[in-house]
Specification:
Order of helices and strands: HHEEHHHHHHHHH
Structural class: mainly alpha
Strand order of the largest sheet: 1-2
Helix content: 55-70%
Distance between the termini: 114 Å
Radius of gyration: 36 Å
Number of helices: 11
């Protein structure tokens, strides 16, 4: 005799979803994942942009069917001050020009970058000027090196009222006046614009033109 047993197992009920429980509890349903991503993107778009340093190149972005590119800020005031100081240093040593070179000394003091002025007025700059002055007293030095030494001495002993003119509108106007006077002297004594670009005067012409253009830009 065979005995068969049948066990009646209860069927597992499906676990109710969280959304159903939230609806029964009176809570609003959770938004879908696509909506969360859209809201996150909108929140990121409303955040302020991270400021970029001067000289940084921003990439092109797509706006509709057109590409919008941002120009780089390589012509910042500190960069132009470095270029102007380099052009003045070239004029200290350049030949083929009839300008009155001592005018370059106050022009350099007004237009040189702040880091250069700080170094000249520091202890290292003072020792450099002191040793150069000692060499000048006991030995003969070329005349082209006297102007850099005079520039260091002028900056070292300049009162703070004069140093504070740097970066102001008054200092920019004074620098532009000196630059225009030097340009007038150069082009007049070389015999005109065409002769100023000859092989013997082209370096001085480019340096004076660079200084004049930079001072015009810094004024406006």
């Amino acid at each position: 005799m065979s005995i068969s047993l049948r066990l009646a197992l209860p069927t597992a009920r499906p676990v109710p979803l969280l959304r159903s429980r939230a609806r029964n509890a009176g809570c609003p349903p959770a938004p879908p994942a696509s909506a969360l991503r859209t809201d996150a993107l909108r929140g990121c778009a409303s955040l302020p942009l991270k400021p970029q340093p001067l000289g940084a190149v921003r990439p092109c972005r797509r706006r509709g069917s057109a590409a919008v590119c941002h120009a780089s800020a390589y012509l910042s005031p500190p960069t132009m001050q470095w270029v102007s100081a380099a052009a003045a240093a070239v004029l200290f040593l350049a030949k083929g020009t009839g300008i009155h070179k001592p005018f370059l000394v106050p022009l350099f003091a007004l237009q040189a970058p702040s880091s250069v002025i700080s170094w000249i007025k520091s202890e290292y700059g003072l020792w450099t000027a002191f040793l150069a002055l000692l060499v000048r007293l006991f030995f003969s030095v070329p005349g082209e090196l006297e102007l850099p030494l005079s520039t260091m001495l002028l900056v070292s002993v300049a009162p703070y009222q004069v140093i504070n003119m740097r970066g102001t509108q008054g200092g920019a106007i004074l620098s532009l006046a000196v630059a225009l006077y030097l340009a007038f002297q150069h082009f007049t004594r070389t015999g005109g614009i065409r002769k100023a670009f000859d092989q013997g005067s082209i370096i001085a012409t480019l340096a004076i033109t660079c200084i004049t253009v930079i001072n015009v830009i810094l004024l406006f």
